[in-house]
């Protein structure tokens, strides 16, 4: 570079021609450096400074190039890492979406399966409810009990009062068996079981009705399921239920004490109280007396005064009644002495005449019959016959 700079300086120096006039040299003082050499010396120093600056710039440039290369390499690595992360995230996102779709599809399938199962169970439940309703209607027992006169014959001395704490009674109930008779059918009951069984073995019978013959079919009478049970009732002579107790701003123990004090009074048949159970939420109490018979005297009053000291309330009294079933039985059977006659052709004017003709035919021993206890014939429409429970008349 130094040679290049020198050559440039030489090129820039003006060339003097021979035709120019040469000025006479001015004499210099002793020891003074010529002006041209001083300028050259300053230029050389400035050149050196520029050389140093150029070298430093080149060095900085090289360092910057190295830093740029390192930064580009690091950038490339980061870009590759970023692309890897993006690819990984895209892959994971795709897997998550696929798993979500699979899970959603599985959940939908399970929901559809559960919906079908719920619908199936609802259909079964509806069938069961309908069957239960039909059975409840079928075995429904009317609560009508006929009035019965009771006659007391004598008194007995009670040795142990604990044995007579309650008034006990029970009712035996049984259902009748309905049987539907259609047009041209008859029910016939014989006094002897063997007569009905022998006629049943020969199912078809030729019956003479006013000089006319008709073939009838004898069939067994199959009755539906019936029930029988005993309803036991116990009415306590020592306990009563108290309802509509006011909610007082006192503790439950104080309410119990006030109840005990009110029912200890004897003006309305009270007595010594053994125990009080109180429920504030339902406003009810169960009071147990020490002596039997006290409860029977109190329940005569539908309402009873309950005094709290400041105010008097009317509470409701009811006996403690325990009810339960025993000997509950379900049974069905076939009548042993009754037959169903079908396909009867009506030749008489009224039902009674037809009943008499059928009874006369089946009373004759020559026709394999016997004594007839009951007969019912239906000429028009439909009628229902009811059978009572009789174990001797069923098989």
Question: What Rg is obtained from the alpha carbons, in whole angstroms?
Answer: 62 Å
Largest sheet: 6 strands, antiparallel
**Net shape:** elongated
Q: In terms of structural class, how would the helical and strand content be classed?
A: alpha+beta
Order of helices and strands: HHEEEHEEEHEEHEEEHEE
Cα(first) to Cα(last) distance is: 141 Å
Mean pLDDT: 78
Which residue ranges are poorly predicted, with pLDDT under 50 across at least 5 consecutive positions?
A: 1-33, 391-395
Please estimate the helix content: 25-40%
Number of helices: 6
Number of strands: 13
What is the total domain count?
Answer: 3
Question: In what range is the share of β-strand residues?
Answer: 25-35%
Ordered list of secondary-structure elements with their pairings:
Blueprint (H helix, E strand, L loop, with lengths): L1 H11 L22 H104 L27 E9 L2 E5 L3 E6 L2 H9 L2 E6 L2 E11 L3 E18 L8 H13 L8 E7 L4 E6 L4 H5 L4 E5 L4 E20 L2 E9 L8 H13 L8 E7 L4 E5 L8
Antiparallel strand pairs: 1-6, 2-13, 3-11, 3-12, 4-5, 5-11, 6-8, 6-10, 7-8, 9-10
